[in-house]
UniProtKB/TrEMBL annotation, chains A, B:
Signal peptide: none
Keywords: Carbohydrate metabolism, Glycosidase, Hydrolase, Polysaccharide degradation, Signal, Xylan degradation
Enzyme nomenclature, EC number: 3.2.1.8
Superkingdom field: Bacteria
Gene Ontology BP terms: xylan catabolic process
Organism listed in the record: Caldicellulosiruptor kronotskyensis (strain DSM 18902 / VKM B-2412 / 2002)
Protein name in the entry: Beta-xylanase
C-alpha cells in the first residue's frame, strides 16, 4: 500500500489547439510546478530583508539564504506580534509587512499571519485600559489586520496558546486579563467572529503548544459551541528532544478525531545540544552559546525526515511549518535553522529538499494524447505545467476527479 | 487572622419557656453535635456489613471498625458501579444499597452515590447494544437510581473521569463508545439532565482524577454550555506520594476560579511503601504484598493532617472523603485505610479525630441569657444542642446570620 496515496490524484486532460481541434496522438510533457501541501517556514528576517534594511555581509548572507528559502518552501508565516507590530497605539507596522507579504506572494508563496491574539509579546499599552477597552482594542486590531491584508494573507493564527492563557502568571498583561474575565470559550468565540467578519474567505486557526487532553477538550468544546475552526494548529518545538514515532502518532490520533485539517505550525528540531529536560518554560533556558555541531546536524536531518514522513503520510495534515530557517535569527538563540550563523547550509536542507522536490514530487512525464486529444495524468496534488513543443499551459491536480480542458 | 474564620458563624438565640416567656438570666449549655463541613469516607464494605453478610472474626472486626467510622465521619460515599450494581440487565442491587444507606442515614450521615456514568466497571451487557441503545440504557439507569434513592441519597457523582473517557483504550466498553460518538460535552449534558430531572433537589457532581488544565477547561466549557454543576469533584489518590503544599494550593487555585464548591472526593495517602513513579495507570501496580509499616503510618498521619488543614482553610472546599477506611478492602490492596488488616487503628485516626472533633469543633460552652432571654452564640458551623437543666433543643449555626427562636 502506498502510504502517500491520499496525496495523489489523477485527472483527464482534454487538449485542443487554439482553433478548438483536439491535439491528436501528440507527445506532450507534464511536470509538477507546485505542491498542494503547504511546506512552510517562519523566517521573520524576511521583513527587514525585503524592506532593504540589511547591508554588507548581512545582506549577502540573507540574499543567499532567501534564494534557498524560495527554492524549498511554498508557504510562509509572517509575524504579527501585537507588541512589535503596534508598539505605539495607532501606529501599526502595516506597510513593512505588506512589502514582505507581496514579495513572498510574488515568489509563489501562500501566507499566514501569526498571531492575532496572544498573551505574550502583546502591546504594553493595553495595561492602561479597562478590560472592556482591551477587548475592544483586541477585536478592532484583528479586524484591521485581517482586512488590510485580505488577498495577500488569507490565513491566520487567530489565537495562540489559549490553554494556559487565563493562568499565565509570569507577568501581568492585557490579554490574560480579558481571558480571565470572559473565559477561554468567550474570548475564542469573539476573536474568531471578528476575524471571520473581516475576511469571510480566510482560513482561521487556533494554535497551541499544549498537545495533551487539555487542548483536545478545548477544541471539542469550541466546536460544540459553534466556533468554526478551519484548521487545528499544533506546535512542536522539540528543543528538548524529538518526540519520536510514538508521541507523534499519539498526537495525530488525538487531534484527528475532529476530522479537521491539522497544521504543524511551529516545528523545531535543533542541530546542537538538547535543552535539559528539567526546563519547563523553554524561555527560561539561556546558555552562553548554543553551537550547531556536525553530529547534531546529522541527527537533525534524520529526525526531521522521519517527522515529515509521519506527518505527510497522515491524511489530515495539510501544512508543516519549520521554525525557523536561519540560526542567526532563531528563537532562544537555538541552532534551529537550516543555515548556520556563518552561512553554511546544514544537511537538513538537502534531506528535506529530497523529500519535497524529489520523493514527493511528480517529475516530468512524457505522455501521448489519444485520437480525441485526451490524456490521463496522475501524480502528487498541486499545480502542473503541460507543454507541447513551445506551447505551455497549466492545470491543477486536486482531490476531486474531473476533466480539464486545456488549450495548447 | 483566623485561617478557619469562614468555617465559623454566630447567631442570636431567643430562648423562651414552654409558656412563651423569655428564659431570663439563665445559665445554659451549648455544644456542637454535628459539622456542616462534610468529613467523609468511602468504605464499601458497609454494604455487606449492614446486610449481615459478614460472620465470625470478619464480623467482629467490622463491628469495631464501623463503630470508629461513625464516631469520626458524617458523610459517606456508596458504590453504584454499574457493572456490579446491575451485572444482569434488569436486576439492580437496589435493596442491599438501600439497607446500607438507611443504616448510615440513621447514624446521622449525609450520603453520596458514586458513580452514575463511568467507562470503568461498567455493565458488560452494554457491549451487545447499539450506541443509541447504550445511551438510552445509561440515561434510564441514572433516572432509576436517582429516583429510587431520593431522600436517602441526594448527592451523586454523575459522571466520572470524563477527561480521558473517549480516549480510554485499555478495553472496549459501552461508555467510551457513546462518549466518542456524542462527545464529552454532549454526554455530560445528557447525564446531568437525566439526574436533575429525576431529583431536582440533588447535589450533582462531576468527578475526575485529572487535576490539570484539561479538567479546568472541560468545566469551563460545560458551564459555558449551561450544564449546572453543583460541585466540582477532585480525586487525589496519592499512592505515589503526597502532593505537598505547593501542588495542593495550585489545584485549589486552578479550580476555585469558578466559584463553585469543591469536593475532595477520593483522598488516599498510604501507610506503606510508595508506588514507584514510573507507573502511569495505578491499576498496573500489583505487588505481592503491600504492608502497612510503623514509620509510614506516622508519615500518613502527618501528611493527612497537613492536607486536611490546607483544604479546610480554603473557603470553597465543602467536603473531603477518604478512600477508604479498612486496609482489608482497599483499592489495589494498598495500605490506604485507617485500620490495618489485623484490625489495628493507625495514628491517622487519632490525628484526624483531633482535628475534626477537637480543633475544629466547638465544645460545650456555658452561656447566660440576658433579661429578654437572648444569648449570642458563636462557633464552627453545624448543628448544636442547647440545654437548660434537663431540657434540650437543637439549632443550626450556618453562614446566614439570623435569630433563632428556641423553646426550652
Amino acid at each position: 500500500m502506498d502510504r502517500y496515496n491520499h496525496r495523489k490524484s489523477q485527472m483527464l486532460l482534454k487538449i485542443t489547439t487554439a482553433d478548438g481541434k483536439p491535439l491528436k496522438n501528440a507527445e506532450i510533457a507534464v511536470r509538477q510546478i507546485k505542491h498542494k501541501f503547504l511546506f512552510g517556514c517562519a523566517e521573520f528576517s524576511v521583513v527587514p530583508f525585503v524592506n532593504g534594511e540589511f547591508s554588507g555581509d548581512f545582506k549577502e548572507k540573507a540574499e543567499m539564504a532567501f534564494e534557498k528559502f524560495v527554492e524549498l518552501f511554498n508557504f510562509a508565516t509572517l509575524p504579527f506580534y501585537w507588541g512589535r507590530f503596534e508598539p505605539v497605539r495607532g501606529k501599526p507596522d502595516t506597510q513593512r509587512l505588506k512589502n514582505a507579504a507581496q514579495w513572498l506572494k510574488n515568489a509563489g508563496f501562500v501566507l499566514k499571519g501569526h498571531p492575532l491574539c496572544w498573551h505574550t509579546v502583546t502591546a504594553d499599552w493595553l495595561l492602561e485600559l479597562t478590560n472592556d477597552q482591551i477587548l475592544e482594542a483586541q477585536l478592532m486590531r484583528i479586524k484591521r489586520e485581517v482586512s488590510d491584508f485580505a488577498g495577500l494573507i488569507d490565513m491566520w493564527d487567530v489565537i495562540n496558546e489559549v490553554v494556559i492563557m487565563p493562568n499565565f502568571n509570569k507577568y501581568d498583561n492585557g490579554i490574560t486579563r480579558i481571558c480571565k474575565q470572559f473565559g477561554r470559550m468567550g474570548l475564542v468565540k469573539m476573536v474568531f467572529d471578528a476575524a471571520r467578519e473581516a475576511n469571510p474567505k480566510a482560513t482561521l486557526l487556533i494554535n497551541d503548544y499544549i498537545v495533551s487532553d487539555a487542548y483536545e477538550i478545548l477544541i471539542e468544546a469550541l466546536l460544540d459551541k459553534g466556533v468554526k475552526i478551519d484548521a487545528i494548529g499544533i506546535q512542536s518545538h522539540m528543543h528538548q528532544g524529538f518526540w519520536g514515532v510514538e508521541k507523534t502518532q499519539e498526537v495525530l490520533e488525538r487531534f484527528s478525531r475532529f476530522g479537521l485539517p491539522l497544521h504543524f505550525t511551529e516545528v523545531t528540531l535543533i542541530s546542537g545540544k538538547l535543552m535539559p529536560p528539567y526546563i519547563k518554560d523553554l524561555n527560561d533556558y539561556k546558555p552562553e552559546s548554543w553551537p550547531s555541531t556536525i553530529e547534531c546536524e546529522e541527527r537533525q536531518a534524520m529526525e526531521a525526515t522521519l517527522f515529515y514522513k509521519i506527518l505527510f503520510s497522515h491524511p489530515l495534515v495539510e501544512a508543516i511549518t519549520w521554525w525557523n530557517f536561519i540560526d542567526t535569527f532563531a528563537w532562544l538563540g537555538a541552532p534551529a535553522g537550516f543555515i548556520t550563523k556563518d552561512g553554511r547550509i546544514k544537511p537538513i536542507y538537502d534531506a528535506l529538499y529530497n523529500l519535497i522536490k524529489n520523493d514527493w514530487w511528480t517529475g516530468t512525464q512524457t505522455l501521448v494524447t489519444d485520437h480525441d486529444g485526451f490524456v490521463r495524468v496522475s501524480g502528487f496534488m498541486g499545480e502542473y505545467e503541460v507543454s507541447f513543443k513551445d506551447k505551455k499551459s497549466k492545470f491543477t491536480l486536486d482531490r476531486k476527479y474531473e476533466v480539464a480542458q486545456i488549450i495548447l
